[in-house]
């Protein structure tokens, strides 16, 4: 229930009033208000409101339809505002203050100066002269540059008789190019400049050239600078059009023959010794999985036609009373967090229900990770809560208190996209972020208080030679060593915090077999630990996944940085012969399984329980032959609206810690959930 009622508004009016329509001054400060408390239906009755005080609250944005046509003075000091563009709905605004909103910058000041034509005072300063310059001189200069960019590079690309597709294509290219290449003013205002350039370019295309911009792609692009965040409850999620598509719904059908149990299947032509064949047959007796649900819950704009959104990461929610901090191999809940496109979803694997959905219209999420924090709740008692971190293309980490349906904060971690994130298993507030800026950062995200105030700090920066794709903490010493699979190799760092150096180069790079020799230069797009010592990594070498020993490969006693070490290979797993990258792998240490998807929608499963004992002995020998998969789960013959989805890549596949469910993320916006039977 909203904190704001008719009675509260009448009581908070200055002076107190008996009717909403008579209120001219309203003080709603210090009420712990959140954005959802500002009910447009109630505020629309404040027709004559001229002064509004919303200071000292928890607002992160303004709803777009508050309908306060006569508002002249607005105080938003001491909130958590992240965007100011919604203020354009108050065209008569003359005085605006939003000091102590830590996410707002000088760029936002310039945006409101442009949007609010009557604004005279901003944060107590007279901005009349500067605002006129922004609205006239700045706009004139940028318009000239945008027009010149079109004339020089794009005018001749559009045929005299053009199709709608040609218009859409040229528009997309022009908007991207003009925002990149048109520069004006100081670098501190680059965000504002890009925002204005895009606006001017869209107006130029619409009016000067008569191009229609009301296409779907236009609507998608217009959200880039006006970030919209929302957290949906189960009811709201169910109301989304085409948000979830089950395998059993009439819309999506599966050929019955394809839904029978999958049995072991080796790749054609693979040779196995008698021992290996027996091992595989024994393993296959107790492993079978049935397809449970096929969900389409990350669609852009909730479109049923979206088979382009890529799904990248999923992780099961820890059970709060399981002692997960002390023992990483514990039973988990059946709830999994998945991310891709503009949204993060929480799914009940058994029922296929989308429990919650969190959206950021300008984001493309690449990675999610859970931690459990002991927080102080309102009556001063301490209680454990699961917190979800989500990050992606914008380089920002969103922190979500799932039980409260609340994104309580963000960390602007990198200026380039974040490829992956993970929490320390021993320090619950320590979060690693690996970015396209060729850095891996360690953050202390802090513990939020009962008002969700928190303080994040950067503890360490690890310099990488190329983009880090996957990271893993060494299980036996998670506070000392971190492994990363990168675009150009596999690296290790010493991350111990008692060392003085905050920015550190890598300590070791690992060599792997490459035909007749050893090499360090190869893309490592899959990386995980099978147990305390055995590392599983997938490289750009087609058809092969390596298992190798951390303790026998890494020389902890050696001195100096950037040393080259040879990975002590224990075995090779037979996998697809594709040379396609970024199809990552995962492990289930409790059951000694490795999983990896391929370019045909299949999941390769390897039960390695018969091998790990031998590998763990001091003189454990390398398995001479490649180990074939225990089982390959084939993608069912799904049909949507009578048609098969396009080519299906399995970007990621993850089992819960006790291997009850298997969640498969694809390149076609479908999440598949299998259940072990």
TrEMBL record:
List, in alphabetical order, the Gene Ontology terms for molecular function in this entry: chromatin binding
Region named Disordered:
211-240, 255-288
Q: Where in the cell?
A: Chromosome, Centromere, Kinetochore; Chromosome, Telomere; Cytoplasm, Cytoskeleton, Microtubule organizing center, Centrosome; Nucleus
Q: Which UniProt keywords apply?
A: Centromere, Chromatin regulator, Chromosome, Cytoplasm, Cytoskeleton, DNA replication, Kinetochore, Leucine-rich repeat, Nucleus, Repeat, Telomere, WD repeat
In residue terms, where are the WD repeats? 411-445
Q: Which PROSITE patterns match?
A: LRR, WD_REPEATS_1, WD_REPEATS_2, WD_REPEATS_REGION
- A biological process from GO: establishment of protein localization to chromatin
Q: Which residues form the Leucine-rich repeat and WD repeat-containing protein 1 LRR domain?
A: 7-200
Instruction: Note the SUPFAM superfamilies from the entry.
Output: L domain-like (SSF52058), WD40 repeat-like (SSF50978)
Which InterPro entries does the record match to this protein? Leu-rich_rpt, LRR_dom_sf, LRR_LRWD1_dom, LRWD1, WD40/YVTN_repeat-like_dom_sf, WD40_repeat_CS, WD40_repeat_dom_sf, WD40_rpt
Which residues lie in Acidic residues bias regions?
215-231
Q: Where is the Leucine-rich repeat and WD repeat-containing protein 1 WD domain?
A: 288-676
Q: Name one GO cellular component term.
A: kinetochore
What family, per the record?
A: Belongs to the LRWD1 family.
- Tell me the PANTHER family matching this sequence: LEUCINE-RICH REPEAT AND WD REPEAT-CONTAINING PROTEIN 1, OPTICIN
Q: Spell out the protein name for this chain.
A: Leucine-rich repeat and WD repeat-containing protein 1
Q: Which organism is it from?
A: Anthoscopus minutus
The UniProt gene name for this protein comes to Lrwd1
